Amino acid sequence: MAQERGIKRQIQLPLTEAIKISFESLRIRFWRSLITTAGISLGIAFLVSVVASATISANVEANRGAREAEIDILAAQEAKEAGSISPQSIWLISMSLIVCVVGIANSMLMAVTERFREIGTMKCLGALDRFIVELFLLESGFQGLAGAFIGALIGLLTAVLVNLKNYGLDTFVFFPGLKILAIIAAACLLGVILSVIGAAGPAYKAAKMPPAEAMRVEV
Amino acid sequence: MIMPELADDVVVKVENLVKEYKMGSTIVRALRGITLEIKRGEYISIMGPSGSGKTTLFNMIGALDKPTSGKVYIEGQDMSELDTFELAWLRCHKIGYIFQTFNLIPVMTALENVMLPMIFAGLSKSERIEKASKLLEMVGLGHRLHHKPYELSGGQQQRVAIARALANDPAIILADEPTANLDLKTGREIITLIKKMNEERGVTVITNTHDLKMIDVSNRIVFIRDGLVEQIKNRDEVEVVVGTVEE
User: Is A1 an 8 Å CB contact of chain B?
Assistant: First the structure.
């Protein structure tokens, strides 16, 4: 019936355009985006510093043990335990992650709320709910990636400094490069996932509103 | 034999439209049964005191909100039958919106704002740039293509909004108090521009206003009071004296 009258359904937003729009949105609100990103960075930096530090010291201890007492399995074993993550650290890491998620969720809630009018306008121009969600998820994904990467570097730097103090140059001699790379990659992934989760709720809620209601909201 | 549709030139038809809002425990009836027909190419002004329901009516005609009961037909299509995809398509292709607060996307340049509905409509990049530049030139902003909204004056922003409203050659332009945030001279220029689009492109214009200047260019004026149509008058039946203070 609707189709007969020339009403069609096809409306599109190519991914390249969506990426461009969300990237511009971040760039123009640079300082605000920076604060959100810094929140992510701090959480991830803490996480990475704890994990990377433990990994490095475990590696150094094990290799030193192997060098000094060639077949002293017991010493190597001991060293590994010394380098593993303590329950206290696990608790700290969990706390920092929770703070990270709450901070991101709060920032995204603000970012979405202050842009209700923009969302309503986009829907007036023919945007589907899906596009709105897509734009905000892309935005938060970029923020998560950038924040997590910077945070991971800061965390790694801290870990290296701590280990330099403890082991001196052996830190670099027995540097577990591949493991560290894996930790950084995992941290970036985690940052993206956390910030996308934080943004999904508010973005979905905003996208579902009728355009008139979204534009009526005064912030 | 094929019967020609009798009401073929009716572009918007509103039937017994009722809209209720819940405000706490009380129910406010913003529209109490509006019936209205608007013909293709007409320039209609909806007048009424604030709180009379004109913005609500505007939102219903523009598919921006759902009525409690009653029907809105756009080009013969009952809007309540459309799903969200079809509504988005309708908003994108059939209706152009102009707002009191301009509502340009702040992060985009004038050109990008006009191109946005064309992206949704699936035009290629070169088509978009060509068409949007032409539209902006037509509204007198050919020299401001790459300015962001905050670098433009109110009147210029509204011109961008007019160009954006025309992006996908809509059948209807809905203008919600387009001059309310503009000074007298700029407001008059905007009205002249909208009227020009109405005459040159044959687009139906529905505005929502208490600006007397807008009445002057209208074909018909719909007076709304307390959610009902009070009266509908042709332009020549209404006396408008612009520029004097009415007692």
Answer: yes
Q: Give me the residue from A27, A117, A129 closest to B103, CB to CB.
A: A117
Q: Does B120 touch chain A (CB under 8 A)?
A: yes
User: Structure pTM?
Assistant: 0.81
Nearest Cα to Cα of residue B139 among B116, B166, B169 = B166
Walking along chain A (219 residues) 10 residues at a time, the average pLDDT comes out as 62 82 82 82 86 83 71 58 68 77 75 84 90 89 90 91 84 83 91 85 85 74
What residue type is assigned to position B53 of the chain? G
- Are B90 and A13 within 8 A, CB to CB? no
CB B174 within 8 A of CB B97: yes
Distances (CA, A) of B106 to A14, A24, A84, B129: 20, 10, 50, 19
Contact B64 A210 (CB under 8 A): yes
Where helices occur in chain B by DSSP H, the ranges are 54-61, 84-93, 110-121, 125-138, 154-165, 184-201, 212-216
Which residue of chain A comes nearest to B114, CA vs CA? A125
What tokens were used for B117?
A: 């509905």
Local confidence band at B246 (pLDDT 50, 70, 90 cut-offs): very low
Question: Which structure tokens are listed for B123?
Answer: 């035009």
ipTM over 0.85: no
Laid out side by side, the sheet with B95-98 consists of: B95-98, B172-176, B204-208, B43-47, B220-225, B228-234
Burial class (CB in 10 A: 0-12, 13-18, 19+), A56: buried
The reply to whether B76 touches chain A by the CB within 8 Å rule is yes
